[in-house]
Amino acid sequence: MNAEPNHFDRNRNTTNAFPEVSSSFICGCCTEPFVNLNSSQLIPIIHLQVRKQIIYYKQDSTTLHFAHHSVRIRVKGEWPAMEKATITIIEELVKQVHSSDPSGHDWHHIDRVRNLALYIGKKEGSPHLERIEAAALLHDVADDKLNESERKGQEKLHKILNEIELHNEEKERIIEIIMTTSFQGGNEAKLGTLEAMVVRDADRLDAMGAIGIARTFAYGGTKGNPIYDPGLPVRENMTREEYRNGKTSTIHHFYEKLLLLKDRMCTDTGKEIANERHKFMELFLMQFYKEWNGQ
6, 32, 185, 267: which one has the fewest Cβ atoms less than 10 Å from its Cβ? Predict the structure, then answer.
């Protein structure tokens, strides 16, 4: 292949092997048009974040050659795997958001959920572990209970996503996972992908067992809830608003959420882990009531 020029030139003719066409293909990230593509040989889905260069496409290759560089393209509908550097950037941005959280939604919670999600994803055979990891890291950024408002949380999430090099389609898939993770008083969204099931299970597992108990009391303390009030009823069939702001105690929260999670796990791996953690919470409550009653 001849050497390519370093400057964008819409009117330049290419070799006969790569005739210039009037391309209508637009990059989903930067909106730059793809030019000088042989439309009869073009793979239907192409993405580049490099702008203002003459682009050539070779039919038997998965590489676009331009300006003395080569960039891999996706074939058959899959984007190239997310780079580890992107995950590292997400980590640092998420640490800034959660570093001072006292409610049980700190960086350590995020990291545990990430590790659980990767473990479950591998066990369940997900081909999108990078997507799982990114969604797990970001899953609490927009949570309305941790932000001034739902809108403020969404703005915070999109600000982080806008700071990383990632195709819009992949960002949308990550957002879809995040938006279906929260319990919301049992008013949970339906899941359409294995990756969403994995992240939801991982987040809920961290609300169970010894860690879940510790986090529950931490969150109850930040909300000003009593440890236990025997005069309060256990709430059922709550709206999202009632779940967030209704009167309750930390012990009541076990019955309003934590003890319900075992039967709401989505994956076989999640169910297996949940069984052990559920039993530990039941043992804790038995001992709690024994001590509460002065025994």
Answer: 6
For the cut 90, the answer to whether the pLDDT of residue 130 exceeds it is yes
| Chain centre to alpha carbon of residue 268 | 20
In 23-106, which ranges are continuous DSSP H helix?
84-98
Strand partners, 71: 64
- Residue 162: what residue type? N
Q: The pTM is what? A: 0.71
Lowest mean pLDDT segment, chosen from 12-21, 37-46, 277-286: 12-21
User: Per-residue DSSP letters for 168-208?
Assistant: HHHHHHHHHHHHTT--GGG-PPP--SHHHHHHHHHHHHTTS
Q: How far apart are CA 202 and CA 257, in angstroms?
A: 15
Tokens of 13: 């003719």
pLDDT digits (tens, 9 = 90+) for 77-129: 444 557 788 899 999 999 999 988 999 999 999 999 999 999 999 999 999 99
Cα–Cα distance, 120 to 138 (Å, whole number): 17
Q: From the CB of residue 139, how many other CB atoms can be counted at a distance below 10 Å? A: 28
Q: How many residues does the chain have?
A: 295
Contact 225, 248 (CB under 8 A): yes
Q: 19 and 26 in contact (C-beta within 8 Å)?
A: no
Phi, psi at 33, each rounded to 5°: -75, 150
Kindly compute the dihedral angle of the four CA atoms of residues 100, 105, 107, 111, in this order, to the nearest 10 degrees: 180
Helix ranges, 28-128 (H): 84-98, 107-124
Please state which CATH class domain 84-285 belongs to.
mainly alpha
Q: For the chain, give every domain's residue range.
A: 1-80, 84-285
